[in-house]
Every structure is written in structure tokens, then in C-alpha cells.
Amino acid sequence: MINYRQLSMDVIHAGQAISGAYVASPTFSQYGYSWLRDGTWIAAAMAKRGERASAEAFHSWAARTLLRYEAQIEHLLAKLERGETPAEADYLPTRFHVDGELGQEEWTDFQLDGYGAWLWGLAEFCQTASHPLWQEARPAVHLLVRYLQALWQSPNYDCWEENRNHIHTATLAAIYGGFTSVRRLDPELVSADWPTRIREYVLATCVARDGHFVKYIGNEEVDASLLWTALPFGLVAVDDPLFVATLAKVERDLHYPGGGVYRFKADTYFGGGEWLLLAAWLGWAYIETGRADEARPILRWIEAQATESGEMPEQVDTHCLDASYVPYWINRWGTSACPLLWSHAMYLLLEARLREES
Ligand code: BGC
Q1: For this structure, is 161 an active site residue?
Q2: Nearest C-alpha neighbor of 42 from the set 357, 339, 298
Q3: Is 322 labeled as catalytic in the residue annotation?
């Protein structure tokens, strides 16, 4: 019998570079980089499992890496001040080499959700402003808060690295969550009006006529990342009618019965399979809404998707939304990512949360 908990921690340890960065996937051609989005969750899972040194090393790496790009950020902020439109290359990247260098290939770089999520994750990890890591990271946090304050209403790629020209609800929620958490620890860095302003904007622009959050402004579909609005970013409570309606629509439109969760209905990446990490998110939402019994089969489903040696993929193609795209992606990039550290991390978090329930 495989001990998925231990194996997940082993996969994550093996995927952490000396620098502290976590690689997204050690084997997939495109994922040999560290994303703050993935890393935030991987660090959260490690901290939850008592591996605080691993989480701390990641956060410290992220803070050091951001400061390396301080001049680039100041240059961008100055351009915005002067009313100029930044070039794509002026924005921060979404992924870094594990040594903090920029990737050389073209990538869909301008994405803000990972930066908001990282602020949330760092603050959650430190808990108080007197934590030495917070003190070390504070200059990077300050810089990033200014970056996000200047750009939060700019269209940018979503958390799936698509739809460059839109404003995404989950991205705004991540920035909201980041600002709220920073403010709780260190109110000097984010004034009280910021979270309020973002929340009011989301409520005014990101809600469909029938009362659920929308994928992005102007698109009434749901995306599984909308679960982040409550979990963990707290833009709304889990019993808020908006979240209740969003969860119900995610279940209806994106949960394969007895299986995993699609990112969104029109997904074609590797055929648009069921994602393990999103299944874990749905399980987490079930726990927080008093439906822990429905989360247990999800945990079992995630385990059943692992390879014989226990490695967890990004997605599985058993019930693809559009299987005709699978060969295209395999030809382009090879078989889809496995193991994906973020899948293992979300598995660990769901498993830990379920054990707290029993
Ligand atoms: C996903 C991103 C993720 C990245 C690395 C992409 O395919 O859309 O959300 O951060 O892979 O795992």
C-alpha cells in the first residue's frame, strides 16, 4: 500500500532546489520553473505537515527574487506615473528559474494572481510581523503591494495563463486576499480602503445576473478557480449566497460525477481533463460547508489517479471535454505533467483538513 502522504512530501522535497524554489514539475518539458502560484500552495502544505523549514526557504527565495527585479518594477511604476503604457516585458514574469533568473522562452507572463496569493501565503506562514521571515521579506512585500496597487484593474492573463485581455474574478480575489492578510500583520503596508475598494469592485462587476461569480468580467461562465473567492481569500464567506450559488454552479458544470473537476467548460489544454488539485479544492469547500462526507470520496478519487509509484498528475484524460486536442498537446510538449507538485500539495492539504474533521 502506498503511503500517499509520505510520498507527496518526498516528491515535494525532491522538487525543492537548494535556493528554496519549488519546481512545478520535475519531468514535464515546460514546468521546470518555479511559479509563485504553485509555490504558495506547496509551501502551505509543507507548513501544515510540520515541514516549516521547507516553506520558509521557499518564501525567503521568493522575497529575494522579487527584490532582484526592484529596478524593473520601479521603471514600470514610473512609466505608469507618466501615463505611458508599459511593454509586455516590463511586467513581472509568472515563473522564474529556480535560481531566480528569467526564462528565455516566450511565456504568458503578465499574471497577477500568483503575486496576490504569495502575499497571502507569506502572511499566513509568518502570522505576526515580528516573525524574522516577515522582517526579511518586508521590503519585497512593500514593493509588491505597490506593484499590485498600480495594476490590479489592468487586464492580465488568468491563473491558467489564458485570456490576456480580461479582468478575472479569481485574480482580484487573490489580490484582495493578499492585501487583507498583509494588512492584518502590518497595517502600515496596506491602508484599510484597499481591500474594501477591491471587494466593492468585484461585487459590482464580477457577478452574473443569476447571482454567481463570473469567470471574468463579460463572461458569465464559471471557472473552478472561483472557489478561491472564499477559500482561502475570504472575499466572501462560505455561506454568502454568492459563494453558495458559485459552488452550486461549479458542481453542476465542472464536477464530473464521482470524479474530478474541470477548470472551465471550454478548456482544451491536453483535451480539458479533470484536475486533481481542483478536485481537492472542491473537497475543501465541502468540508467548510458541512459536507465532509462528500470530501472523502474525492480524496480517494485523487489517490486513484496516481501512477503505480504514487505520483500525482496535473490532470487525467479519462473524460476529456474535447479529446481531439490531446494529440496536439502531446506532440507539442510531451505527455501532461506528472508528478505535479501542486497536485501533491492540494492532496496533502485536503487529507490534513479531513483528518481534523474526523
Ligand atoms: C497552469 C498554471 C500553473 C502552471 C504550473 C499551467 O498549465 O495553467 O495554473 O501555475 O501550469 O503548474
Answers
A1: yes
A2: 339
A3: no
